[in-house]
Specification:
mainly beta
């Protein structure tokens, strides 16, 4: 994995070796953010001694600041930081990174999900609850070790950990990039590899094209991260994975699908897939999606855990940046004993973006 370190160092050196330039445009600052409030009513199977509340609320409020300028040699420099004003994450800063864009591609450094996540985006279209607001999975008590949040991109392994990435410019619809994270945690300075997994590498490519009346896209990537134990088996937390994504739009319709195969060093192999469709007309949108995942609870386990979930969502745009929505969902979870845990409910809310 030292090769990943050398590649990243070379990219940074190449960027800093560019001829000296001065800002041709004044640095412009933009303030943005979002406020989301959700109310959930759910019914689900309960274990002996449990007393699960059928109602719950979630909120997500983030504030962002962006600064951007274009140098007199044409290089664009952008700095972005987003804060968790009110969220379930204990960290104050959600993202903080710098982009340097030239005719040779884009170099990014800081806290940001890897290129696999930014290339694929939302694995399936959703009318109201977006991929980074995995409220439905949080509303139901987990009965397995299957991951629902960021389940189809490599963000599930590194989050927004510190890293550096390079992506080529688009050539005939194709783009390829590589992202490197020294550790999947917000840490600084020299690290002891025994403390956390290390040296995460994400290589992703994508293609976008169009046809009469619509567009289509394909993307896929490979991920590898070293285990802190340096070995396979019990206690090992390294992982490798690969994924595929495809989608198309035509008029007001959009259809997408994604698949990911996760191969952890501890042997709890997981396969997940999803498919979804959306239709929008004027201020109204409706979407439906289905996801399924299977996972070994431990190496050589005779049975697999499984989660299946179907969701139907609607949203109505009240005005610029303001929308209300409603979602119904139903899920079945099968634990290591083969017992089924079903549950479902309805979510409603309002989202304001600025």
């Amino acid at each position: 994995m030292r090769r990943g370190v050398y590649i990243s160092a070379g990219l940074l050196a190449a960027a800093t070796a560019a001829p000296a330039a001065h800002a041709a445009d004044a640095i412009t600052l933009t303030l943005g953010g979002r406020i989301s409030e959700f109310f959930v009513v759910a019914s689900q199977a309960q274990a002996a001694g449990e007393d699960l509340n059928s109602t719950s609320m979630f909120n997500d409020t983030r504030i962002s600041v962006e600064g951007k300028t274009v140098l007199d040699n044409g290089i664009s420099v952008r700095a972005f930081v987003r804060f968790n004003a009110v969220a379930r994450d204990a960290r104050d800063v959600d993202e903080a990174y710098v982009d340097v864009v030239t005719s040779f591609g884009r170099l990014r450094a800081g806290e940001k999900a890897g290129l696999n996540t930014t290339t694929i985006g939302d694995p399936v279209p959703e009318a109201f609850v977006t991929v980074d607001q995995e409220i439905l999975g949080d509303a139901l008590s987990p009965r397995t070790g299957i991951v629902l949040r960021d389940a189809f991109t490599f963000k599930r392994f590194t989050g927004n950990a510190l890293g550096v990435s390079y992506q080529t410019p688009e050539i005939s619809g194709f783009k390829v990039g590589v992202a490197y994270h020294p550790a999947p945690a917000t840490l600084a300075g020299p690290l002891d590899n025994r403390l956390v997994p290390n040296n995460a590498l994400d290589i992703t490519g994508g293609y976008e094209g169009d046809f009469s009346g619509g567009t289509y896209r394909f993307a896929g990537g490979y991920f590898h991260m070293n285990s802190r134990t340096g070995a396979s088996g019990v206690g090992a937390d390294g992982v490798q994975a690969w994924n595929l994504s495809a989608g198309a739009t035509y008029g007001g319709f959009e259809v997408d699908a994604a698949y990911m195969n996760i191969l952890p060093d501890n042997g709890t192999n997981e396969q997940a897939w999803t498919v979804g469709a959306l239709y929008g007309i004027g201020p109204f949108q409706v979407s439906a999606d289905y996801r399924s995942a299977k996972r070994k609870p431990f190496r050589f386990a005779p049975m697999k855990e499984q989660v299946d979930r179907a969701t139907l969502q609607t949203a109505y745009k009240l005005g610029p940046g303001i929308s209300v929505g409603l979602a119904g969902f139903y899920a079945e979870q099968k634990d290591t004993t083969g017992k089924d845990w079903d549950g479902g409910g309805v979510l409603g809310g309002v989202k304001i973006g600025f």
